[in-house]
Amino acid sequence: MAHFVALLRGEPDPDLDALEYLYFSDGGTARVGLWGYWDIWAKRACTVKVVSGPGSAKPSNTYGSAVLAFDLKGLTERSVIQAFSGDSPFSGKLECKRGGAGNLAAENKRRLDSGDPKEVYPGAKLVPLKAGFGNYMHSPNMVGVNGLAVHITAGPGKADGFTGNFHTRKVSTHFVIDREGMTAQYVAASLQSQAQGPGNPNFLSVEMVGSQDLKKIQYTEAMTTKQLDALTKLWAWVFITFPAPQWQLAGIYTGHKRNKQGLGMGHGLDSLYPDIGADFASRYPCAGAQSSINSCINTVGLSCHWWLDTALKSCPGVPMFTQLPQVLGFSEYKLASLSKYQLV
């Protein structure tokens, strides 16, 4: 039997991306994947129909070998979809729910205002986002919390001052820690942030305020002592609050990323990140060196943007990257070439 999945990654995972509900936009449109769409016995592709309420579905492109995408329109909260092989049901039924930004913004604020210790980090200043989070076209909720992913803002600012930036760019994070160690929370812990692509459903995210030379992307700031202390406390809360994380580095991506033209980032980063990662795997408790991003997503522990997203971005930068073991309580990682990458 087939089942419906969210289209969050290049090739959806049948378990990680399985949907509980299909969330549609304010205009009644949605896009969904059908995992196992090919009926091997009848030798034909399945179709998706709206079996209750208004709406229609049209097949689109495939994702990998097992998933066929469908575009839907005219949906309401009375709509229910199901896959068929010919006239025979080939999946369970999936209810549709409105997932527009307005409704989700109110839900985010409600969860943050609740004071629920599994939603809100104690001591954080609450700055509820109204947009740029939650993946409205699919399930907005976290699939689970495997750990915490570290990012860099690539620009200055106060922890509670990034709302406009997030809304404009349609991106987000759960937490921001500024250079003075102040922590702000923008998204409730049970909702996805739009921070690390395919890693969004499984890892909470934190942006560490730090600058980056936009012309020479290899130059970034390290965390301040106050930031490192605040991040260690936030990581301890994640470790204690959620059952899955282990006190370790999550899966360490040691592969190489390339764009469509086959190019990497340059500046020595394409080999440096895998080399440091391999060294981490030999020195510190971790979920092992991994050759794929999906493998990293399936692990638990303290992670970072580079290990969870297929995008060709240098985040969190070499200086912060090398500070990750310190969050676990280890001494400073010595990198002989660090001065070549540190923005001072």
From TrEMBL:
Q: Which GO terms describe its biological process?
A: peptidoglycan catabolic process
Q: Domain (N-acetylmuramoyl-L-alanine amidase): give its ranges.
A: 145-257
Q: Source organism's superkingdom?
A: Bacteria
GO molecular function annotation: N-acetylmuramoyl-L-alanine amidase activity
Signal peptide residues on this chain, from the entry's feature table? none
Q: Provide the coiled-coil residue spans.
A: none
What protein does this entry describe?
Answer: N-acetylmuramoyl-L-alanine amidase
